[in-house]
Automatic annotation (TrEMBL):
The lineage of its organism: Bacteria, Bacillati, Actinomycetota, Actinomycetes, Kitasatosporales. It comes from Kitasatospora saccharophila. It comes from the Bacteria. This is DUF397 domain-containing protein. Residues 9-65 form the DUF397 domain.
Amino acid sequence: MTRIDLPEARWVKSSHSTDGGNCVEFAPEFTATHGIVPVRDSKDPHGPALMFTANGFAAFVAAAKSGRFGEI
């Protein structure tokens, strides 16, 4: 298993995040270098991150947009 150094990641906030609301960030550069997309809660930057494959992340985004996880 390859160790991925997330503290050095450049995190990007979701365009659907609101000021002070539910915020999701992802680190897109890891897709090209590691084939994964780390995702975290911006309110807890030192907390855990979910790791998706590129296809898994695309499916996650599509499900969120469709309302599968509730209202955004």
